[in-house]
Amino acid sequence: MPRLRAHNIAVSLDGFMAGPDQTLEHPMGVGGMRLHEWAFAARSFGGAGDGLDEAFIQRGDEGVGATVMGRNMFGPVRGPWPDERWTGWWGDEPPYHHAVFVLTHHPRDPLEMQGGTTFYFVTDGLEVALERAFAAADGADVRVGGGADMIRQCLRAGLLDELHLAVAPVLLGRGERLLDDLGDAGAGYTCAELVSSDAVAHVRLVRG
Amino acid sequence: MPRLRAHNIAVSLDGFMAGPDQTLEHPMGVGGMRLHEWAFAARSFGGAGDGLDEAFIQRGDEGVGATVMGRNMFGPVRGPWPDERWTGWWGDEPPYHHAVFVLTHHPRDPLEMQGGTTFYFVTDGLEVALERAFAAADGADVRVGGGADMIRQCLRAGLLDELHLAVAPVLLGRGERLLDDLGDAGAGYTCAELVSSDAVAHVRLVRG
Rounded distance, CA A174 to CA B181, Å? Predict the structure, then answer.
């Protein structure tokens, strides 16, 4: 059975996935880059690191045939799209190389990028976005890219089969909390793997 | 300079230090024991484990001459003490073997236990409790035993020199959150050590 997975989701010790006040200058919110230093030190993100952290980054892509993400992860634009100019944070060739379904309240035509990535804008809710993603993945897994709100929705609804958290050993103090108000949904997950580099603790949670 | 330290503070991935509804039957709150399984598997708490987790448990006692704790950590009694019968969770010989200052709104005579532990009940606030603890420690460090509220107060006020968190790879869903509303105080701490066993990630944060 194809599974719904989230990988390399960086959180602070106090549970924040991004700092406050996301803007073009601060795509991760103010201070939020501290959660991602381990990733930028790894080869996949331009660093030299080729150890545990790099291995976890690569595992996040394995067996994934489509991605779903929230609109705030796609970009800083809020409300109706003023024009077609914003095409994501990732330049002309985003690192997805498959169909990406962006959940939004505001319709927009599909956006075909270089390297096989096409962004589809879904206005019919999470379930429809997931249905379309699993159809596009054609038997492979679907990855939830983020942000915090979408991952939380998937967790609370028991839809997420695997969640790999990268716990950064920092206190952010404020920002957007990832693991909030999970209630009974939290008990449905068990730890399949726990291992640390010097920079980050990797926790792999699976449902059941 | 003597330092104020907290050790082996177990938190869930979603930031809870205890489950909801602390009672005599559930001293850690409902579900809260899942945060402490790693500790009970270690030799100091009656288990067989003698590795990394046991070493961290032992380090928490090294160089400590006195302890401060909140009233809810001392026991489940709320409001004025109805009598002198409650003497803590730890039996006739608590594992402290030094002066322990319990912060409470309700006065009570000092309580001398076997093995060198005496509980003093301080009604003049956190600063006074710390002053008395440092005096009793006589040049050694003071440990903040907990609970969540006292650790949070010390963190927010910038009083805590070292915080060792034991991050258990579980989602509790609800309970008493430890690292909440830290604001700018969070940025004052940096990670001095990050290392994991199979059961828990140890993070040692220091001020500055």
Answer: 7
